[in-house]
């Protein structure tokens, strides 16, 4: 357990890097079938490839990390439960990766994918 | 044998169809059994986040499913499954609850329009359940409840191929689910690091097991009538009762951590607290009744590293992994033709069991089983027709005597060695009749060459081979052919004697005196001498013989 040595310099983690971590976490989250670009929110929800981070927005406000995720959820799942799970999973994975607390994770459900009809 | 009772052992009549009310009772049983295991499942929960609520979430989801059908008198299984799946969806809690609701959704869709389900319908429903569950995520993570759902569906499909008995199909599903759960740590690193199996997967296993217990008439909850006489300790763990604690350890990595405040909070949670560190990294160790409490607290402070939860949980691991679950034998097979095999050593017994032998009699060189042992094994089988594999020249006579005394149709395949017995078993075809099988097994057995490597117990000259007491000797089809000073040397000489170069497969069953690494080393050596042949190593665990060899 070595102490940090500030004299060596600073470590900066960019919002883009945080977005990558969050994106990975979101896509492995059960019930999520895609992320969607925020700009298109009003129009067509765009299901994007798994590498894209367009569905994730990371802001630093007053030194606090706020993450917004824009997702497409599988039709027929309980949306509230899936969204809550996204919040927990994103927060947990980002905090684990960078060691800095995440203040907020906001989940925006941009659309539903209907793969089967019952 | 005058006791007629022995020969009247039969399997209960198969359960061929389940209707709406039957399915309803299965769900009730699943819920009861899940509640019984709720805490134990919570403890396993480390993925996707270690919040220790998987068991609770699954129970709440199943409760919501049950509430939807509790008061219905619906007899159509398709309709009741839909209602129940709807209940699961509405009440889905947490990640595992959402997946579980998807599993039921697929299951119900497959049963659409069905008044009852048969084995094939159940298999199809399980397949659809797994498929639907996988669809709900972009990147399915293996080593989770998804893996368990998929492997269970595979098992259901395979079981429905061989049997129409729903109890058998469910038995096989439960067995496969258990295997899948045990596999999860090897598929998902975060589980392996924490030393746990997947909580959601374990939950699904428990649900299926609860259904199976109901179908077998076993108790599934403490409040059912049958509770008397059931040892609840062996069916699950009772956290809190024995006063144990979970040993929880983790590192919190964050910023501006206040070690004293953390220590104060941890001390309030449990016993043996140890909190050390600096504002960026804090090591926490504590014994608590609920590991979720310190872990959740740690998560609120920063990111957690090296989370270790031990003790009772480790025991639970052992318990679920070691709990005896053997693959059920297809009922048709055991009803028509049963096989009794004599095996020296547990390893060989296991080999025979895996090949579908219904009863094992322990024995072999220097410990021949009696006629009575063999007769009891034959009479206890549900099958009316029994094939006996003595697997030793000295036991054939006892087997013949047992055959003469038995009330059943018994055939003794005169196998003189383990390899002969294995070869005979591989030739069995449960679709064929008894006589055809006996003929096929006998002829398959005769094509095998057997070699045995052991220690000479006296000095002699036999067949022109001179041996002294304590030397290593090799027998080919029970005749002394080679001798030497090392096991390796004799195995090689014996394989040459057996003309292994002209054959395709060399199998080595290594005995109790030989370690697995020794056997593997020998196989590597042999592969150099016989590069064309396939060499197989099997743990035989037999006494007296270092190796039993076969070439075919």
The share of residues in extended strands of chain B comes to 15-25%
- Silhouette of chain A: elongated
User: Which CATH first-tier class of the largest domain in chain B would you pick?
Assistant: Mainly Alpha
Rg of chain B to the nearest angstrom?
28 Å
What's the domain count of chain B? 4
Question: Any guess at the CATH architecture of chain A?
Answer: 2-Layer Sandwich
Task: Characterize the largest beta sheet of chain A: strand count, sense, and whether it forms a barrel.
Answer: 4 strands, mixed
Can you walk me through this structure?
The complex is a heterodimer of chains A (118) and B (552). By secondary structure, chain A is an alpha+beta fold. Chain A has helices at 15-27, 79-98; strands at 32-35, 56-61, 64-74, 102-113. In chain A, strands 1, 2, 3 and 4 form a 4-stranded mixed beta sheet that branches. In chain A, 41% of the residues are buried. Chain B has 21 helices and 18 strands. In chain B, strand 16, helix 21 and strand 17 form a beta-alpha-beta unit. In chain B, helix 1 packs antiparallel against helix 2 (54-69), helix 1 (20-44) packs antiparallel against helix 9 and helix 5 runs antiparallel to helix 6. Chain B folds into 4 domains: 18-222, DhaL domain (Serine Threonine Protein Phosphatase 5, Tetratricopeptide repeat); 246-322, Alpha-Beta Plaits (2-Layer Sandwich), CATH 3.30.70; 331-446, Rossmann fold; 450-551. Chain B starts with 17 loop residues before the first strand and ends with a strand. The radius of gyration of chain B is 28 Å and the shape is globular. In chain B, strands 15-14-11-18-16-17 form a 6-stranded mixed beta sheet, with helices on both faces. In chain B, strands 4-5-3-6 form a 4-stranded antiparallel beta sheet. Classes of the chains: A alpha+beta (118), B alpha+beta (552). The A-B interface holds A 1, 3-4, 25, 27-34, 50, 74, 76-78, 81-82, 84-85, 88-89, 92-93, 95-101, 115-116, 118 and B 48-49, 51, 82, 89-95, 97-99, 101-102, 105, 108-109, 132, 135-139, 141, 253-255, 277-278, 280-281, 283, 299, 301-305.
């Amino acid at each position: 357990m070595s102490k940090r040595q500030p004299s060596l310099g600073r470590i900066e983690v960019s919002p883009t890097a945080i977005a990558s971590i969050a994106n990975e976490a979101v896509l492995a989250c059960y019930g999520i079938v895609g992320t969607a670009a925020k700009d298109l929110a009003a129009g067509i929800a765009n299901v994007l490839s798994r590498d894209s981070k367009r569905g994730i927005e990371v802001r630093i406000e007053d030194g606090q990390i706020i993450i917004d995720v824009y997702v497409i959820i599988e039709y027929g799942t309980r949306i509230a439960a899936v969204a809550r799970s996204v919040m927990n999973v994103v927060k947990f994975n980002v905090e684990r990766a960078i060691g800095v607390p995440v203040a907020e994770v906001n989940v925006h459900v941009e659309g539903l994918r209907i793969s089967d009809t019952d | 044998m005058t006791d007629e009772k022995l020969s009247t052992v039969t399997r209960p009549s198969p359960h061929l169809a389940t209707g709406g009310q039957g399915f309803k009772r299965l769900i009730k049983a699943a819920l009861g059994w899940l509640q019984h295991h709720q805490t134990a499942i919570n403890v396993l929960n480390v993925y996707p986040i270690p919040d220790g609520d998987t068991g609770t979430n699954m129970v709440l989801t199943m409760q919501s499913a049950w509430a939807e059908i509790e008061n219905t008198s619906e007899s159509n299984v398709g309709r009741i499954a839909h209602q129940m799946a709807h209940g699961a969806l509405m009440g889905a809690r947490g990640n595992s609850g959402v997946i579980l609701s998807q599993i039921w959704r697929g299951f119900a869709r497959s049963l659409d329009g069905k008044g009852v389900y048969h084995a094939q319908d159940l298999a199809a429903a399980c397949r659809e359940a797994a498929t639907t569950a996988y669809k709900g995520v972009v990147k399915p993570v293996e080593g989770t409840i998804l893996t368990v759902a998929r492997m269970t569906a595979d098992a259901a499909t395979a079981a429905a191929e061989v049997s129409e008995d729903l109890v058998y199909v469910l038995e096989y599903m439960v067995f496969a689910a258990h295997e899948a759960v045990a596999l999860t740590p090897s598929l998902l690193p975060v589980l392996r690091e924490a030393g746990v199996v997947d909580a959601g997967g374990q939950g699904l296993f428990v649900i299926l097991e609860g259904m199976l217990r109901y179908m077998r008439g076993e108790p599934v909850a403490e409040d059912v009538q049958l509770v008397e006489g059931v040892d609840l300790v062996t069916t699950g763990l009772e956290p809190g009762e024995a006063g144990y604690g979970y040993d929880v350890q983790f590192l919190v990595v964050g910023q501006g951590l206040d070690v004293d405040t953390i220590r104060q909070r941890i001390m309030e949670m449990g016993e043996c607290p140890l909190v050390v560190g600096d504002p960026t990294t804090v090591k926490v160790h504590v014994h608590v009744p609920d590991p979720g409490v310190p872990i959740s607290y740690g998560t609120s402070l920063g990111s957690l590293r090296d989370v270790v939860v031990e003790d009772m949980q480790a025991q639970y691991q052992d318990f679920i992994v070691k709990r005896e679950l053997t693959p059920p034998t297809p009922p048709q097979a055991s009803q028509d033709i049963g096989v009794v095999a004599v095996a020296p050593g547990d390893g060989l017994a296991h080999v025979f069991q895996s090949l579908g032998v219904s009863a094992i009699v322990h024995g072999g060189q220097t410990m021949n089983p009696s006629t009575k042992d063999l007769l009891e094994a034959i009479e206890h089988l549900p099958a009316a027709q029994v094939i006996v594999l003595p697997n030793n020249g000295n036991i054939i006579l006892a087997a013949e005597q047992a055959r003469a005394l038995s009330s059943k149709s018994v055939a003794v395949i005169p196998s003189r060695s383990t390899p002969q017995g294995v070869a005979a078993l591989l030739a069995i075809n449960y679709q064929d009749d008894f006589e055809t099988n006996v003929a096929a097994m006998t002829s398959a057995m005769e094509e095998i060459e057997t070699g045995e490597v052991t220690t000479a117990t006296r000095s002699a000259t036999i067949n022109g081979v001179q041996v002294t007491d304590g030397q290593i000797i090799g027998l080919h089809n029970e005749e002394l052919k080679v001798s030497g000073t090392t096991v390796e040397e004799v195995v090689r000489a014996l394989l040459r004697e057996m003309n292994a170069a002209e054959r395709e497969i060399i199998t080595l069953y290594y005995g109790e005196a030989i370690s697995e690494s020794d056997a593997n080393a020998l196989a590597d050596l042999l592969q150099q001498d016989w590069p064309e042949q396939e060499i197989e190593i099997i743990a035989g665990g037999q006494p007296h013989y270092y190796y039993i060899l076969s070439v075919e």
